[in-house]
Fold:
Amino acid sequence: MVDAKNNGSVEITRRSLIQGVAASTLAAILPMGPFGPRDHRAVSFRKTVLDKRFIAESVAIGDVNRDGKLDIIAGNVWYEAPHWTPHEIAAVLQVDPATAYSNCFNSWAVDLNHDGWIDQIVIGMPGEKAIWRENPRNINAPWREHPIWRSACNESPLFVDLLGNGKRVLVMGYDDTYLAWFEPLKDPYAEWICHNVSERNGPSSNRYSHGLGVGDINGDGRNEILTKDGYYVSPPDPRSGPWTFVKTDLGPDCAQMQVFNVNRNSRTILATSSAHDRGVWWFEPLKGGGFQRHLIDDTISQTHALAIGKFGRSRSLNLVTGKRFWAHGPGRDNGASEPALLVRYELLQTPRGLEWERHVIDEDSGIGTQFAIQDLNGNGLADIIVANKKGVFLFEQV
Structure:
């Protein structure tokens, strides 16, 4: 069992992230709830190795065989709960993690053809096509592949409820030219509808762009699309692009950009993590516009995926990330061969101000380019599921 507070590998660091702000002021902007009170009972995880092969760098969660249990999908394999029996979706290629990449950088599980069976969205190498695979409905056969769009750019494409209507859409660049969002037609087997967001060659349109997020950061009630160079503001009709771009510095190349509220008045902050160097940060909105960057941690390199989770009985908010081991192979990125840590940063309210506390969950797994946080076993506690060049791993919160 991996214990995030009690085992000998735990490293805890504290950093005050708002300098010169009184604790009473912080109490006013940070209500009790996801940020407190702190749960002093240990938050522990049980590690299960589902696969030691390099299968994928992302995972998706869904009830593939409709037995009432959530299964794990990683690239060309799905793992059947509760014993995590592997089943092939497509032929599994032998890939050398030191020299090659997987065909699955991002994936999601959703019923796209509305037949009651979970399908798989797959995005491979940046710039290549986006597809979905049709669940054969408990028949032992390869999953049929269908097109979504000819080109999927940016290394952190998103499948999110962009419009706030309960329907998820894809947000990504395409053709090394435009950033756009995509929605399916009534015919699930047709290519999706493309809605341009950026002007030609706008920020985050390139295939190797890093950093993409969605959230309402200007308080207009509509979601913006964030990039490291600024954000796109939706017009009243989000299908009538291009969107207005507001230039602002949101840090260096990063993973998924997380946006979350810190009070009832929709005060928002952002969090990012470095894709190929070192750094995890949060960004404080300034009254005059723009954001101030605050360092959370600079000891782990290649934090190429970032997600938000709530852990413990108090559901305290955590940023979860770690090392994408050999993101570009050995020796190419800063600290490429250092231990593949998986970590969470717990957001705390203290007399000194707002702080993050680091907890090492594991030292030999890390993250890929996308991972999932979800309650898999129905015990009411969020679990963490990752796939990367080390294999496929489940961390059950116990």
Q: What stands out?
A: Confidence is low (pLDDT under 50) at residues 1-37. The longest strand covers residues 291-301. Helices lie at 23-29. DSSP finds one helix and 30 strands in the chain.
